[in-house]
Design a protein that fits this description.
2 domains, elongated, alpha+beta, 2 strands, about 15% strand, two-stranded antiparallel ribbon, about 100 residues
């Protein structure tokens, strides 16, 4: 039996779409897919580590594109560090969640 196949596509209409195709004769894979689907209904994050890394990358990209003045403003509103952290290349504590939401 063939291994499950992952198909990923971006769409202007619905955003990012990911589908996993499973051979209907592979009962073990079908049972595992059913279990994963039920888990995702309760908590829609399959891999916390990958999700956290993606969030951090998004925040870092946003941080890199901000001016020093914008960084200072974000730190004043949402950070837990000195405004001098605005000069750093890395996102300061407390600001990541703010950047992810914007």
């Amino acid at each position: 039996m063939e291994a499950p196949e992952r198909i990923r596509q971006g769409s202007w209409a619905v955003g990012w779409v990911e589908v996993i195709l499973i051979d209907a004769r592979d009962l073990g894979a079908l049972a595992e897919a059913e279990r994963i689907g039920e888990d995702l209904e309760r908590y829609p994050i399959l891999d916390e580590t990958a999700f956290g890394e993606a969030e951090y990358e998004e925040a870092s990209t946003c941080w890199e594109g901000m001016s020093i003045a914008e960084r200072v403003q974000a730190i004043q509103k949402h950070g837990r560090v000195s405004v001098f952290a605005a000069r750093r290349d890395t996102v300061p504590d407390g600001v990541q969640d703010y950047l992810h939401g914007n």
